[in-house]
Amino acid sequence: MAAFRLGLIGAGRMGRTHLRAIARSDLVAVAAIAEPSAQARDAVAGTGLPVYPSTGEMLDRAAVDGVLVVAPSDLHEKIIAEVAARGLPILCEKPCGVSSAQASASAGVAARAGIPLQVAYWRRYVPALQALRARIAAGELGDLHLVSCYQWDESPPAAGFRAHSGGIFVDQGVHEFDQLRWLTGQEIGPMHAVAAAMVSDPQVRGDVDSAELIAQLSGGTVGLVSVGRHHPPGDMCRAEVFGTAGAERCDFLDPAEGDRTQQQALLRQAEDFAVLAGGGTGHGAGAADAAAALDAAERATALIPALAAQG
């Protein structure tokens, strides 16, 4: 069986991360790359793949079965509309825009075009988190008191990226909001948030380096989200669940094994998208999930003065 041919839109750091992961697949292959930045095009010149300066040119000239959008978040809506007009299935990096309105609009565009639109919340493909979700659903931990989700990066991204990312809750926090909903099956309700009073990068405006949020979930559980941009030992993510019948801590991404964990999940995600694009059942996040995560991020952002002032 021929591999599913993906067109990769965006060859920045995350685009190249996807490229490395998919290179190990027998079911999916990146067939072409679109990237407007000459510097980023140079970074993938050694792959042997055709590289085009625009999405339109790639779609005109390359044979692809679907696309993976890894462009800056504020370009997601425009690119999704352009690709949907060609009738191609879309796997879009989170958060699928920088607002819930953009994610919902993209969902409508995809629905009218009759194409699948999956959003790349790769943690849904981490076996340890899948096992934790199954234990929660089976009632093995009892009624849930608290679910805590942590994401602390080794260091902040470039100031230029942060200027277009929507702030820490849109950039990082959407992963935690999606994870809370996916793990518990509950929606995110009223919330409170605080941030440490520091930003280490003087070029950055309208963002913070760390923030903490506590929310009431629709099933009565409390959700805690902790996000930060300074964890010198390396990237770290974990989830903790406290229930009436048990508790579990899941350190699914740590400085020693983080890259390996993410790479394996991105590979599983791409192969699952190929199944969805071929008419099968996918197990990833949809645009409605992306809109729900962005809605929570928007509400959280409004609670932090430094973030709300920028918005």
Features of this protein?
311 residues, alpha/beta, Rossmann fold, Dihydrodipicolinate Reductase, domain 2, 2 domains, seven-stranded mixed β-sheet, six-stranded mixed β-sheet, 13 strands, globular
Under CATH, the homologous superfamily of the largest domain reads: Dihydrodipicolinate Reductase, domain 2
| Percent helix | 25-40%
Structural class assignment:
alpha/beta
Corresponding CATH architecture of the largest domain: 2-Layer Sandwich
* Overall tally of domains: 2
Radius of gyration: 19 Å
String of helices and strands: EHEHEHEHEHEHEHHEEEEEHEHH
For the record, give the distance between the C-alpha atoms at the N and C termini, rounded to a whole number: 48 Å
- The tally of beta strands, per DSSP, is 13
Strand order of the largest sheet: 3-2-1-4-5-6-13
Q: Beta-sheet strand percentage?
A: 15-25%
Average the pLDDT over all residues and give the rounded result.
Answer: 94
CATH class term of the largest domain = Alpha Beta
Which stretches are low in confidence, meaning pLDDT under 50 for 5 or more residues running?
A: none
The major sheet is characterized as: 7 strands, mixed
